[in-house]
Each structure stands twice: as C-alpha cells, then as structure tokens.
Design a protein that fits this description.
By secondary structure, the chain is of the alpha/beta class. It has 19 helices and 16 strands.
Length: 458
C-alpha cells in the first residue's frame, strides 16, 4: 500500500495541483485549507507525511508542525514556504520538520523531497530494528542466566563498571569471559572511548612487544614507518587482555611497570608517552598454579587481581541452560529466517543432560547447527552433535550394524572413559570420580582398552 499524504495549503490552485500530481504517483492523498481542519483530520487518521504551508489561516504552519511533532511522531513534515520566509523555514526544521520546499517549485522537486523523507524514515526504522537486535545480544541482557551465582556476577559487574578498578575474569573456555568484559566496558565511564582487545594466546612471542608498545621507524628491520601499539591505541579508554596467563614471562615485568607508572616507550623510541587506561583481564588458566611453576609473576597477579570475577562452568549451573537454549533459538531462528522452530522432548532432554565441556559456546554452536539442519520446524535428536548422544551411537552400532552385545558394551564403556579423561584434562582421580568408579578400576580399564591418560589410544 502506498504512503498516505496530507496536504495543508490554502491556495486552491496549488492544493489541487499537488493533489492531482501526487495522486497520479500512487499516493493516498487528503487535503485541507487550514491548520484547524488538519488537526481534526490527523486526530482521526494516520498519515506518513504532512505537507504544510507556513502561511495558513487560523493555526499557522509552525504551530501545526509543533502539534504534529508532539502527538504524531511517525508523521514526517515538509514545509512549503515563500522565498522571503526561508529564515522561518529554517526554524521549522529546528522544530522537527524534515525539510522545506520554496515556492515556486516543480513536481519533480516535490517528489524528490518526498522520496528523500521516505528513504530517511526507512533508514530510521532499520537502525531501530538493528538496535533492538544488538540490545538482545549485548550488554547485561546478553548475559542470560537463571541461577543465583550468575545474578551475583551481574551485581558485581554493575558495581565495578563505573570505577577504574582492574578486573580479572576467570573461567573455563567458552563460559563467556569476553561477554562479561564487554558488558563492563559498555557500562563504564569510558564507554565512548577506545576499547582495544588483545588475545595473549594468539600473538607470537617475537611480535608481542611491538604489538603492545608500538615502534618507531627504523627500530628494526622492516619497521618502515612509525606504528602505535595497543597501549597508545587504548589511551583514555579500556584495554582488555584476554588469556593473560599466556603472556610471555619476559613481558610480564614490562606490563607491571606500565600499570604502575602509566608510561610507555615505543620500540626504538626515547620519548616517554603518558597513558591513562582502564584494564580488564581474562584467563582460563589457574594463575596460582602458573605462579608455582614460575610461568606467571606473583607481583603481577596481585596487581591485576584487585576485583576477581569467576564464571562457573555451565555444568555447575544447569538451571541456566533452558534460558540459554531459548535465547540462542531466537537468535538463530531470526538469523536463518526459520521462524516458529520448536525442540522435541527427547532433544530437549538431551540438551539438558549434557555436561558441556565447551560451556556456553558449545551450547550456542549446537543450537545454531540444529536450527540449520532442521527442515520441518522441529529440532530432533538427530540434529544434535554426535558427542551429545553416546546412547544413540551405542544403539546405532549394536542394532543397525548388528555388532555383538559384548563388543558394543566394551565400545560404549571405552568411549565414556575417553570422554571423561578428556573433560578432566587427563586427571585420573577426577575422571574416576566422574565415572563413579575407583582409580584402580579406571586404571585397569584404561590398560585393557589401550587408553592413555590424555584420552587417546596408547
């Protein structure tokens, strides 16, 4: 359906001309000759656009504009003005009009300003839609939870966001450490300043120092121009060190000095550069264990561990799983244009019972995969990753391939042991506890099945 336009013009010839022309362009047109009639029409009917003459009997154009902007925010206003009234027309734009068009004007000029208004309005609606999507995925709203322990984490984030206190976020891979860091930054006093991230596990040790500090031209072979490092880029903002436990030991002392002094030197540079940065750190490693093995400086640990936030693994907060499933289902249903997708009871029970060694990230990927694979609007067990379904694999081997029961039981038991060892990082005591057997029994079964402590074959 074409857009609806209200023309408010007291010149009969001009009103009739616009009415005829815009009607021939396919627009729904209604017109009147004064401001009071226009108010009455607007009260009874919605219009996308109001074309208003500045000079009107009774209620003038500026007063009608203010009335529209106060009560009908979705109606765009175009002002008609004489050349001598341009100053007043500029004031009208300040009061909320989209644009003005000066008499005399052609039909082409009129349709051009109408099309620009409609295009602008469509862009506004698109931005609003995208903002709603972002709001669902980011900020505190992106931290989906139902458990008291996660509520405590949210409360702590809200408490520390408005300060510059250093934050150390700890938790297994996939628990959402970066999401927490993002939430802190977005709600901080530095939210409109630079936010720089550096993954300490992804940068080669030989490049780490130049990445952090930058370098001057000629500082080393290949330094053909001066380059700012992460510290300089984050100045007055926030610097997020992801996987801080993987920072090379030699650089840890330099980081400590920067934190304490707030001064850096580029490689090859002699001039000190003052920086003002809020630091957030994250790690999936046990820093105290790294300190014992002399892979992490104890003095740096106490400098960064001012406000620790620990995110428990998903297997320890399974009450969060239903809310996370619903959130990811909504996100990926919209992303892949698959509306009204449901999850079958067996699939839902499987999702709830799985231990998620990959934590929230693993659940997210499982739901995305399932949404993509579902073809009839229902996510079933067959759409879930194989590692979620040890019983299904067992049944498949035994029944479909007609493997003898003894072999199936042994294969099933072996796979369970391997899975437990992998989830426990090869630690036999933890794996035995997870399996509900003694360490001796586990050792004997590993030997019988040819399993090494890492979870693979010997």
């Amino acid at each position: 359906m074409k857009e609806k336009i209200l023309i408010v013009e007291d010149d009969p010839a001009m009103r009739l001309g616009m009415n005829h022309f815009l009607g021939s362009c396919g627009y729904y047109i209604k017109s009147c000759d004064d401001g009071l009639k226009a108010m009455s029409i607007l009260d009874s009917e919605f219009f996308d656009i109001a074309i208003v003459d500045l000079k009107l009997p009774g209620v003038d154009g500026l007063s009608l504009l203010k009335h529209i902007k106060n009560r009908y925010l979705q109606t765009g206003v175009i002002i008609i003005t004489a050349f001598a009234e341009v100053k007043t027309a500029v004031q009208a734009i300040k009061d909320g009009a989209f644009d003005y068009i000066a008499k005399p004007f052609t039909n082409e000029e009129l349709i051009l300003v109408i099309e620009r208004l409609l295009k602008f309005r469509n862009l506004e609606m698109e931005v609003q839609h995208l903002s709603e999507i972002v709001k669902k995925k980011e900020g505190f709203e992106g931290l989906i939870y139902a458990t008291p322990v996660m509520k405590e984490i949210i409360d702590k984030i809200e408490a520390v966001s408005k300060t510059d206190v250093p934050i150390l976020i700890q938790g297994e891979s996939g628990t959402g450490k970066e999401l927490v860091a993002n939430a802190i930054q977005r709600h901080s006093l530095r939210k409109n300043m630079p936010y720089i991230k550096i993954n300490c596990a992804a940068i080669p040790e030989t490049l780490f120092e130049s990445e952090l500090f930058g370098y001057e031209r000629g500082a080393f072979t290949g330094a053909i121009e001066t380059k700012k490092g992460k510290f300089e880029l984050a100045n007055r903002g926030t610097l997020f060190f992801d996987e801080i436990g993987d920072m090379p030991l030699a650089l840890q002392a330099k980081l400590l000095r920067v934190i304490e002094d707030g001064i850096i030197y580029r490689l090859g540079g002699k001039e000190p550069i003052q920086i003002d940065i809020r630091y957030i750190y994250a790690t999936s490693k046990n820093l105290k264990e790294l300190i014992k093995s002399e892979k992490f400086r104890e003095d740096l640990f106490y400098r960064i561990n001012v406000m620790p936030i620990f995110i428990p693994p998903l297997r320890e907060r399974k009450e969060d799983i239903p809310a996370l499933i619903e959130n990811f289902l909504n996100i990926f249903s919209e992303k892949y244009s698959k509306q009204n997708i449901t999850i079958s009871s067996p699939a839902y029970e499987t999702l709830l019972s799985y231990d998620y060694p990959g934590n929230v990230r693993e659940l997210q990927h499982a739901i995305e995969r399932a949404v993509l694979l579902s073809s009839d609007g229902v996510i079933d067990v067959k759409h879930l990753p194989d590692e979620f379904l040890p019983v299904k694999a067992f049944q498949h081997d035994c029944i479909i391939n007609k493997i003898p029961l003894k072999e199936c039981l042994e294969s099933f038991e072996k796979n369970l042991i391997i899975k437990a060892l992998q989830e426990c990082g090869g630690k036999k005591i933890e794996a035995a506890k997870k399996l509900g057997i003694s360490r001796k029994a586990l050792w004997e079964k590993m030997k019988a099945y040819g399993i090494d402590s890492g979870g693979g074959g010997i």
